[in-house]
Design a protein that fits this description.
By secondary structure, the protein is an alpha+beta fold. The chain contains 14 helices and 21 strands. The structure holds flavin-adenine dinucleotide.
Length: 439
């Protein structure tokens, strides 16, 4: 089996979580995955499933075993009639969306990064934007998982609703998810457009923006009081000339400009305000028609650190007003625009969107800036407005705080204990989250 047993340094994408794992396994069959889980269990070790390492929080930290499904990929079967596919869960979203397009299918919505693995993305309820769409885990119609005792379990919402609601977002704490069945839709094209406005107008028109566009998201430039609204809407128009290239260039250029503002703001704080205004003035409405598979994701050139909270959507304007006040008062010299996305309510136990329509506020910062003070103030404001943290982003919350945020949190902890009594799938971060001690 492709498995290495010598110390191996692992770092997450942001370069903020490092660990030395003694065994990094990349199984290629289900039996090898089972064998790896059983070996770690028998040797009294712990094991963390790892995806593409895009999480900012130390979910994947381990000093013993990493199990990656990077060699366990691809679509295994297609149910044409019901537009469902079984996918090996190490598949990246990029490969998945391209393979779906070859079958005339697409995901109804997706996160903005297609380097994520399917298992990693659903394990933290990763999401795109669009009031009518849930996070990626809500597209899951079945999954298979290798449990702590080495057995393979198939979990479906219709036959095992409770277990399914727990496993569809489970932080790699219940077992190794090997296969995911996804509900797809007919392939489609989207027209992307951007427009700029003021923060006040964006907050006033919030419901309209959510209703009038299939996928609307906001980029707010603190200090400059300005917002860029990016929208995606279904179209039958022909694809724009060189549409994927134009799409990439547009996003990349925007991202480069955001990074430049961040660098300038670090050196001369007042430039953040001036650049923010300039950028939003320049950003008049324009459009580009792209295939669904190319519409959601874009490349990042600068590495960053991020936190994100999902708020009840009706509390967004008050939360943004509070953030605006505190950012100005404390003069944090905010480097990156703050992003707001919309996610439909679901019933998954650890989903930040469980039981309510959400507005997700994402706050990025450069890792080499003193962002800790900024993040802790922002987290406090967003939590006060009913926010629940994104599991893949940094957050300061204790087990007791998390219990009050998630209505089924205690149920998840009890199920986790039942499925994995020895804590094979725990690490120090997860032990703290679930209120366990590591022996
Ligand atoms: C540049 C960038 C852009 C991002 N954009 C978005 C976005 O648009 N929307 C959003 O919501 N989030 C976004 N994120 C956060 C990201 O989606 C999540 O952190 C996601 O979980 C990362 O997926 P991954 O494949 O890298 O998984 P990892 O970070 O490697 O792992 C995440 C979790 O999944 C578990 N896991 C992985 N594989 C398995 C498996 N086979 N079985 C069981 N558990 C498993 C791990 O144990 C861990 O708990 C972004 C992050 C970055 C760095």
């Amino acid at each position: 089996m492709p498995s290495r047993r010598h110390p191996d340094t692992w770092t997450n994408w942001a370069g903020t979580v490092h660990c030395e794992v003694t065994n990094h396994a990349q199984p290629v069959t289900i039996e090898q995955i089972q064998a790896e889980v059983l070996r770690a269990a028998e040797e009294g070790e712990r094991l963390r499933p790892v995806g593409a390492g895009r999480s900012f929080s130390p979910l994947c930290w381990s000093d013993e075993n990493h199990l990656s499904l990077a060699k366990f990929t691809g679509i295994e079967s297609t149910d044409v009639q019901n537009q469902r596919v079984w996918v090996r869960s190490g598949t990246t979203l990029r490969r998945l969306t391209h393979s779906l397009a070859n079958r005339g299918l697409a995901l109804e919505n997706a996160p903005d990064n297609d380097r994520l693995t399917l298992s990693g993305a659903i394990s933290t309820a990763s999401h795109g934007s669009g009031a009518a769409f849930g996070n990626l885990s809500t597209l899951v119609t079945g999954l298979r998982m290798v449990c702590a005792d080495g057995t393979v379990r198939e979990v479906r919402p219709d036959t095992d609703a409770e277990l399914f609601s727990a496993t569809a977002v489970s932080l790699g704490a219940l077992g190794v998810i090997t296969h995911v069945e996804l509900q797809c839709v007919d392939d489609y094209k989207l027209v992307s457009s951007t427009a700029s406005t003021t923060l006040g107008v964006a907050m006033e028109r919030l419901n309209e923006l959510r209703r009038d566009h299939r996928n609307a998201e906001l980029f707010w430039f603190p200090y400059a009081n300005s917002v860029i609204v990016r929208a995606l809407d279904v179209t039958r128009d022909p694809k724009s000339w060189l549409s994927p290239v134009r799409h990439t260039l547009t996003h990349s250029l925007e991202r480069r400009i955001y990074s430049s503002i961040a660098i300038a703001a670090r050196r001369a704080p007042r430039t953040a305000e001036r650049f923010g205004r300039m950028l939003t003035r320049r950003n008049a409405t324009r459009s580009n028609v792209v295939d669904a598979r190319d519409a959601y994701a874009f490349r990042r050139f600068a590495r960053f650190q991020a936190l994100e909270y999902a708020l009840p959507v009706e509390r967004l304007p008050a939360a943004i007003e509070a953030l605006d006040k505190i950012i100005r008062a404390l003069d944090f010299r905010v480097h990156f625009p703050i992003e707001v996305r919309f996610v439909k309510s679901d019933a998954l136990w650890l989903s930040p969107h469980t039981g309510r329509e959400s507005a997700c506020v994402a706050v990025p910062a450069y890792p080499d800036t003193p962002f800790e003070g900024y993040f802790s103030v922002v987290a406090e404001v967003l939590e006060r407005h009913g926010g629940r943290p994104h599991w893949g982003m940094v957050h300061p919350h204790t087990h007791d705080e998390l219990r009050t945020m998630y209505p089924r949190f205690d149920d998840f902890c009890a199920l986790r204990r039942e499925l994995d009594p020895r804590g094979l799938f725990l690490n120090p971060h997860l032990a703290a989250v679930f209120g366990e001690s590591l022996r």
